[in-house]
Amino acid sequence: MARYKRSKSRIKNIIIFILVTSIIIIIGLWFYNIYREIEVTPNYASNQSNVVRTSNTINKEKDIYSILEKVNKSVVGISKVKNAGDTIFLKDGSSQLGLGTGFIVSENGYIVTNMHVSGDKYSNCYVTLENGMSYTANVVWANEELDLSIIKIKANSLDYIELGDSDKTRIGQGVYAIGNPIGFEFQRTVTSGIISALNRTIKIEENNNTVYMDDLIQTDAVINPGNSGGPLINENGEVIGINSVKITNAEGIGFAIPINEVKPVVEKFKKDGKFEEINLGIYAYDKNIIPYINPNINVNLNKGIYVVKVLKNSIANIAGIQEGDIITKIDNIELYKMCDLRCYIYSKYKNDEVIIEGYRNGQKYIKNITLK
């Protein structure tokens, strides 16, 4: 009897041992699986993330290559001197022929550049396309104050570049400058950089004359003399500026004129085949230029442009606008820089009416003006 009880007790102990061992094994496997998930999943996710980042970088690079290849087809060489050969792209072309750059903005041959590259309105210059074809171009519009011009060649089905919105540019944004720096060997050179600053004003003194260029885009993308008139593009391949000025005594400081300065003119040429320039007859500057002109002028308004000169018998003169006035609105659109006023006027037509709001000696006035 005692032997039977001991056997029964031994069996019970074995069963308990097996149960405890099984529980321990199950718990151990459960913890192991949790540990494996903790260790493996992040590594997997990290690897996936690296793959995605690498893939995105490659795709972005491919996009940039494709964009630059496409844009380059719309970049042209411009010279004020006709070459006896088949192309204006010569060795040392910038000094021999006054070589500069432009870019095509319509399939029927309208091209944007700097006025100092193309020459005055109604003059001729000479253009070479990316495919080597050369044309005589007519300067159909030029503005000395802006140093901008539009020229026209007789050609069709041309590759043209898309115009962006320079008001949407941001500091730190990546950009590319394209141009013909010093002749044939370096035609359509691409340099890259960022937007270093916006709304810059620089003072230029030439031939005993002082000119202030305002609303400029500052970039550290390399801009050389032959780049003048070439496009400054964003990473979508849209033109946001026209390369114009380089500070010669400093590295990494170049300037481009915002594309919005000329967009209304381009659109009218594309739509109407002509552009009748309406000029209010005033010279006005942004508030940040006022200290250059007269440090004693105190402008308390947080908006508006300062009128420094009114031309005799001009629209503004007849309307009663005077030197020293601060224009703050046109057709209820607030003005912060001269570009705002200029672009709006360029979009209007002769005999359109506008309402100008301004201040004189602290007193507000409103004037209805018919554009002539």
What does this structure look like?
By secondary structure, this protein is an alpha+beta fold. It has three domains: 72-152, Thrombin, subunit H (Beta Barrel), CATH 2.40.10.10; 166-263, Trypsin-like serine proteases (Thrombin, subunit H, Beta Barrel); 278-370, Pdz3 Domain, CATH 2.30.42. It is built from seven helices and 18 strands. The longest helix is centred in the N-terminal third of the chain and has 71 residues, at 2-72.
Q: Please indicate the percent range of residues in DSSP E strands (runs of 2 or more).
A: 25-35%
Overall radius of gyration:
33 Å
Sketch the topology as an H/E string, one letter per element: HEHEEHEEEEEEEEEHEHEHEEHEE
Q: Provide the residue-averaged pLDDT.
A: 80
For the record, the CATH architecture of the largest domain stands as: Beta Barrel
CATH class assignment of the largest domain:
Mainly Beta
Could you outline the blueprint of secondary structure elements for this entry?
Layout: H1 2-72, E1 75-79, H2 93-96, E2 100-104, E3 110-113, H3 115-118, E4 124-128, E5 134-143, E6 148-152, E7 174-179, E8 189-206, E9 209-219, E10 231-233, E11 239-246, E12 254-258, H4 263-272, E13 282-285, H5 290-293, E14 305-310, H6 315-319, E15 326-330, E16 333-334, H7 338-346, E17 353-360, E18 363-370
Antiparallel strand pairs: 1-2, 1-4, 2-3, 3-6, 4-5, 5-6, 7-8, 7-10, 8-9, 9-12, 10-11, 11-12, 13-14, 14-15, 15-16, 15-17, 17-18
Brief characterization of the structure:
By secondary structure, the chain is α+β, with helices and mostly antiparallel strands. The chain has helices at 2-72, 93-96, 115-118, 263-272, 290-293, 315-319, 338-346, and strands at 75-79, 100-104, 110-113, 124-128, 134-143, 148-152, 174-179, 189-206, 209-219, 231-233, 239-246, 254-258, 282-285, 305-310, 326-330, 333-334, 353-360, 363-370. It has 7 helices and 18 strands.
